[in-house]
Amino acid sequence: MRNVALVIVFLLGVVPASGAEASAPAKSFDSALDEIVKRSTQVDIQKSRLTAADSLLLSSRLNFLPRLSLEATQTRAGEPASETKEIAGVATLNLFRFGSDWAAMRAAESNRDMEASRLASAALEAEQAGANALITLIETRLKLEVLKRRVQATESFLNIA
């Protein structure tokens, strides 16, 4: 939560030590939340895991494609150069190996769906933490503004008296 607060302090241009407001341009609530989610390490970790799950899924789907291999040999023998050339091509087709490939593909699809859900969850958690921190910051700024107006009103009352 402290990291989120530091990001918010940076984004909104608040100087916490002196209490003075910085002259940085103000950001909207939504753009500040977007920045917080972009900077979240958990979201980055989940994006990497999703990419890995996509690669595994692609690999399991490619098992259903035919495999092609090509061999070529050339031999020379004897004094009068007698040559033999051989070219062989082989194509094999996967016949599901008793369904294990199909099951592996379904497992890879489920794993990819799970990682996509985790990514969405990480993004929502980062957004919620950021929203809570932003609301706290806004609340603190409003309280500070109320206190400033109260001091000004008290000063003007004392000047009149």
Task: Provide the fold topology.
Elements lengths: L1 H11 L16 H10 L2 H22 L4 E11 L4 E11 L7 H61 L1
Antiparallel strand pairs: 1-2
Helix pairs in contact: 2-4, 3-4
Can you tag this structure with a few keywords?
single chain; 161 residues; two-stranded antiparallel sheet; 4 helices; rod-shaped
Word description of this protein:
The protein has 161 residues and is an alpha+beta fold. The chain has four helices and two strands, in the order αααββα. It has helices spanning 2-12, 29-38, 41-62, 100-160, and strands at 67-77, 82-92. It has a two-stranded antiparallel sheet with strand order 1-2. A hairpin with a 4-residue loop joins β1 (67-77) and β2. The chain starts with a helix and ends with a helix.
Secondary-structure element series: HHHEEH
Mean pLDDT: 81
N-end to C-end Cα span: 47 Å
User: Sheet with the most strands?
Assistant: 2 strands, antiparallel
Strand order of the largest sheet: 1-2
In short:
The protein has 161 residues and is an alpha+beta fold.
